[in-house]
């Protein structure tokens, strides 16, 4: 049943940096979900790249924001972005008069402060439990603690590890948008019929950060170079970063690198296994969206033994929890799946079934409930 007209809200959505990362994708999905429930949306986005998941699908009010360069330049740019966010949020709170400000991630602190001063309720969607700079994260989380009326957490891991008021927190798991689910279902049906493509390919999609386990992925590809197994690394980064990375590495010839493909599903179609190898001492994944995408495609996965991934992947049920530094266990599992078609088929079916726990309908319903509770 559609919501009553008097229950609908104007929602000012704010995201600091739009790219092709998981948090931007979830933001784009959130805007879709709110639209489907009849809410009016105005989206304020900062970025300097040509496009991102949010701008690819939704109209936005855009201001340029670059975070590259030296630490001093990054700090100055971040502070300037917060000031611009503050002014822009104040402007739209007064002229457009939103009922709710929805801030995605901990980063848009300027928008949270402005909303509170304008007496507009605030929802903050938390994807992280830390940043590269602990001091900065501590400052930002204090703003969330002070200003947020509701905090959405992408997993129980995030909810448990944030120093926030538990009464304000609600877990809303990430899910696949309907169009992604339909594409994944087609790939899963293909896998069920013909099995994995040959040669067997191990895929990892991540940002160009070493704590994402890129070193472990490269080393695994070296170890299995003579086993007829291919590796593919799909990287979210700028072109110059990509070129610098390639020129600084000695990469085995069974490893292929791809930068920001039009659709990662083009590469899931050819994958026999998808891995997330984030190093737990430097990066604990809050959820693991690429793992969910792969599972929906009927592709077995390997995930870290900590964090939100453990809520998504049940060990032995279409996926395995393996530490990224345990290359012996990693390579052993890859070899077994590549050589045992029956074991792969069983894992494929289990992965597809497990992914159905995270539906777009459930995501949209739960997000709508959070917004409605602020009436």
Molecular structure report:
- The chain is α/β, with parallel strands linked by helices and 375 residues long.
- It folds into 2 domains: 5-175 and 359-372, Rossmann fold (3-Layer(aba) Sandwich), CATH 3.40.50; 178-355, Glycogen Phosphorylase B (Rossmann fold), CATH 3.40.50.
- 45% of the residues lie in helices and 16% in strands.
- The strands form 2 sheets. A 7-stranded parallel β-sheet has the order 3-2-1-4-5-6-7, with helices on both faces. Strands 10-9-8-11-12-13 form a 6-stranded parallel β-sheet, with helices on both faces.
- β9 (230-236), α9 and β10 form a beta-alpha-beta unit.
- α1 (22-36) crosses α15, α3 packs parallel to α4 and α11 (289-296) crosses α14.
- Residues 1-6 have low confidence and may be disordered.
The whole-angstrom Rg is 21 Å
Distance between the termini: 18 Å
Write down the domain tally.
Answer: 2
Sheet/helix structural class: alpha/beta
pLDDT under 50 segments (min length 5)?
A: 1-6
Helix % is 40-55%
CATH class of the largest domain: Alpha Beta
Give a brief outline of the structure.
The chain has 375 residues and is α/β, with parallel strands linked by helices.
């Amino acid at each position: 049943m559609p919501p009553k007209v008097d229950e609908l809200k104007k929602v000012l959505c704010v995201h600091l940096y739009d790219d092709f990362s998981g948090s931007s994708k979830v933001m784009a999905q959130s805007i879709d979900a709110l639209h489907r429930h009849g809410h009016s949306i105005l989206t304020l986005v900062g970025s300097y790249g040509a496009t991102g998941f949010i701008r690819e699908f939704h109209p936005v009010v855009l201001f340029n924001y670059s975070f590259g360069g030296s630490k001093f330049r990054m700090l100055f740019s971040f502070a300037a972005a917060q000031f611009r966010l503050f002014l822009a949020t104040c402007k739209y709170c007064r002229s457009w008069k939103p009922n709710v400000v929805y801030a995605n991630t901990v980063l848009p602190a300027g928008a949270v402060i402005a909303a509170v001063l304008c007496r507009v309720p605030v929802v903050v969607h938390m994807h992280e439990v830390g940043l590269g700079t602990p001091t900065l994260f501590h400052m930002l989380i204090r703003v969330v603690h002070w200003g947020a009326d509701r905090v959405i957490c992408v997993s129980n891991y995030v909810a448990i590890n944030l120093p926030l008021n538990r009464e304000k927190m609600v877990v809303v798991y990430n899910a696949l948008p309907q169009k992604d689910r339909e594409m994944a279902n087609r790939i899963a049906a293909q896998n069920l019929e013909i099995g994995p493509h040959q040669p067997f390919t191990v895929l990892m999609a991540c940002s160009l950060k070493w704590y994402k386990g890129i070193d472990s992925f490269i080393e695994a590809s070296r170890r299995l170079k003579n086993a007829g197994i291919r590796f593919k690394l799909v990287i979210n980064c700028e072109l110059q970063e990509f070129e610098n990375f390639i020129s600084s590495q000695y990469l085995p010839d069974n490893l292929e690198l791809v930068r920001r493909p039009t659709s990662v599903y083009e590469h899931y179609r050819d994958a026999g296994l998808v891995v997330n190898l984030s190093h737990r001492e430097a990066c604990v994944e809050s959820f693991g969206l690429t793992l969910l995408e792969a599972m929906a495609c009927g592709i077995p996965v390997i995930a870290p033994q900590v964090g939100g991934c453990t809520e998504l992947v049940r060990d032995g049920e279409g996926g395995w929890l393996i530490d990224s530094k345990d290359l012996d266990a990693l390579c052993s599992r890859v070899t077994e799946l590549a050589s045992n078609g029956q074991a792969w088929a069983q894992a494929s079916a289990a992965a597809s079934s497990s992914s159905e726990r995270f539906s777009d309908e459930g995501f949209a319903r739960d997000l709508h409930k959070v917004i409605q509770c602020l009436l």
